[in-house]
Specification:
With 600 residues, this protein is an alpha/beta fold. The chain has 3 domains: 106 residues, Chitobiase, domain 2 (2-Layer Sandwich), CATH 3.30.379.10; 312 residues, Glycosidases (TIM Barrel); 143 residues. It contains 21 helices and 17 strands. It has a 7-stranded mixed sheet with strand order 1-7-5-6-4-2-3, covered by helices on one side. Strands 10-9-8-17 form a 4-stranded parallel sheet. The longest helix is centred in the C-terminal third of the chain and has 28 residues.
């Protein structure tokens, strides 16, 4: 009997005997009109035909108790298919399983099975950064939504700083190819049709540099002429954080009035993380008198009141709150902190325990480990996601919001998101730590509809370069760090000379071996596109590591002749998935990094 693979793994999957032969069209009966919206997304995929006669139907869909709103029971026998669900979203999840079973049918024959399933976590979210240069095209966003729905996610956030087309603020977004209000409404509708909640996400305090660098907004800045911060070291000639005052609240409210009506969700992530220079400028006196934490909490509560005025519930990043976690008891009970951290050793246990003790709803936000890299950081993401799941369950979090950031130019190849995206889905829905062979096969099947293609394994292996070298730089891959952050003195000081050269050689050997796993030419355009993206990532990674080795050995630089070729390939790959806005900035950073490193 052939092994059947369902993703995420269901709570119960048992074989019941012989199954049935699939006709060219599947006739189905559903007498509960409410359930139909859970069936409709699968009509074309499975060639479904609704009938009104029970005897004429192969598939029977009915409403019934399953123990969870998203739960379902699916039974395939010799004569019929039965799907029972508690709600339309449960029916949708059941059809996700049925579609996978149909795709694995041999000679058009389904095996007899009984499947029962429900999620381990109620909140299973994915957040995509669409502000750090790269704004995906609508077709790419729709493909992403279809994918995460099949993986069992029920929430999507698009992280926005300046990439929404506010009608009165073209200065801020004119070169960014922003998402328009009409596009947000289309995305929201598409999400709803796939049982995904599109939660608005607009940073509302810190990370406001894209606004405050323009003269017409500098009056709103905590430090309008810039600032210097030591830990982490940041130097700017303009501000990144708004003043914590009434004028800023009034300004933010004007943005909310235009932005929020495009969403049907009752939730809203207002950001509020990393106000780097808070207390250095306008608020210096108040911070000196009352403390940064109290000034922040006062302004956070002002934001909350705006959010609730617009009929939403406030979510916010919890990093500032967690500097003094005892302050959580001072928050309004409706506030919902999001605890973020992206390394394996992040103190989720301590932080989640402190927030849980105050009775607030909260979730944990690990990451897919792809940003500030060229081939991903899969081992880091794996451990980080597993840790977040473990402590979210321990402390009663509502779930996880798995993040994919685009820091410093968004240079990572798009496919580097998939290992973390699928591993996180398996944890959040099934509570299962995926073995790598199972994860790589799931990437081939569910992302590329190409079982056995081998691309999933190649992506995983390419994401292990730092692991093979034996380095773990926080939030960064060594190759990226060499290109963008390190210079000769810093590199020699940070890495142990000849030992490091040998380790880099091991990384280069692994890159070569992993690159050889990438599939060759095929008739699957999605695979071809991803292979080119990952091959580019592997090649720029190898070049950066080679340059790092040269600097450690104190060898002379040689003329680099392929800079524009590398940048051109990067740009071509970008435009296959994303809009033009932000590309010039990102490609300029890449070009300047290559030129500067080659001269070290």
């Amino acid at each position: 009997m052939k092994e059947l693979i369902l993703f995420p793994s269901p709570k119960r999957l048992e074989f019941t005997g012989p199954g049935l032969s699939l006709p060219s069209a599947i006739s189905y009966l559903c007498t509960d009109a409410e359930m139909l919206c859970g069936i409709e997304p699968w009509a074309d995929v499975l060639n479904l035909q609704q009938v009104g006669d029970e005897k004429a139907s192969l598939l029977k869909v009915r409403k019934g108790k399953t123990g969870h709103l998203e739960g379902y029971k699916l039974v395939i026998s010799e004569s019929q298919i039965e799907l029972e669900a508690e709600s339309p979203v449960g029916a949708f999840r059941g059809f996700c399983a049925l579609e996978q079973l149909v795709s694995q049918a041999e000679d058009g024959k389904l095996q007899g099975v009984r499947v029962e399933d429900q999620p381990s976590m109620n909140r299973r979210g994915f957040m995509l950064d669409v502000s750090r240069c790269k704004v995906p095209r609508m077709d790419e966003l729709f493909r992403l939504i279809e994918l995460i729905a099949r993986l069992g996610y029920n929430e999507l956030q698009l992280y926005i700083e300046h990439t929404f087309a506010f009608s009165k603020h073209e200065t801020v977004w004119q070169d960014a190819s922003p998402i328009t209000a009409e596009e947000i409404r289309k995305i929201d509708e598409f999400c709803a049709g796939h049982f995904i909640e599109l939660v608005p996400n607009l940073n509302s305090f810190g990370h406001f540099e894209r606004w405050l660098q323009h003269v017409e907004y500098r009056h709103l800045a905590e430090c309008p002429d810039g600032f210097i911060r030591e830990q982490p070291y940041i130097k700017r000639d303009h501000g990144t954080t708004l003043k914590p005052n009434a004028k800023s609240l009034e300004f933010i409210d004007s943005l909310y009035e235009e932005y929020l009506p495009n969403f049907t969700s009752n939730n809203f992530n207002v950001g509020m993380d990393e106000p780097w220079e808070l207390g250095q400028g306008w608020s210096r006196e108040e911070v000196g008198k009352n403390g940064k934490d109290k000034v922040y909490l006062r302004h956070l509560d002002g934001i909350r009141k705006l959010v609730e005025k617009h009929g939403k519930r406030m979510q916010f990043w919890a990093d500032v709150l967690l500097e003094k976690p005892e302050n959580a008891k001072l928050l309004c009970p409706s506030a919902s902190p999001i605890i973020w951290g992206y390394e394996p050793g992040h103190p989720f246990d301590e932080q989640a325990g402190a927030i849980a003790a105050c009775g607030l709803d909260f979730c944990l936000a690990p990451g897919v480990g792809s940003w500030r890299s060229f081939t991903g950081r899969w081992p880091v993401a794996q451990k980080n996601l597993s840790s977040a799941y473990r402590y979210a369950q321990k402390h009663g979090a509502t779930g996880m919001l798995i993040t994919s950031w685009g820091d410093c130019g968004n240079h990572q190849p798009w496919p580097t998101v998939y290992p973390g995206l699928l591993h996180g889905a398996s944890l959040a829905w099934a509570g299962e730590e995926l073995a790598e062979d199972k994860l790589s096969n799931a990437i081939d099947r569910l992302v590329y509809q190409a079982p056995g293609a081998g691309l999933g394994k190649a992506i995983l292996e390419l994401g292990k370069v730092d692991d093979k070298i034996g380095v773990n730089l926080p939030n960064t891959c060594l190759d990226w760090w060499i290109l963008f952050a390190a210079r000769a003195e810093l590199l020699r000081d940070a890495l142990p000379g000849k030992v490091m050269v040998e380790q880099i050689n091991q990384g280069l050997a692994h890159l070569k071996e992993a690159s050889s796993l990438l599939p060759h030419a095929c008739d699957n355009l999605a695979i071809e596109q991803s292979v080119e993206e990952m091959r580019w990532g592997a090649e720029i990674s190898a070049w950066c590591l080679g340059q790092g080795k040269r600097i450690l050995l104190e060898e002379e630089a040689t003329e680099v002749t392929e800079t524009e070729v590398r940048v051109k390939r990067f740009s071509e790959n970008w435009l296959k998935r994303a809009r033009t806005g932000g590309l010039e900035e990102s490609s300029t950073l890449l070009r300047e990094g290559i030129i500067a490193l080659s001269k070290e």
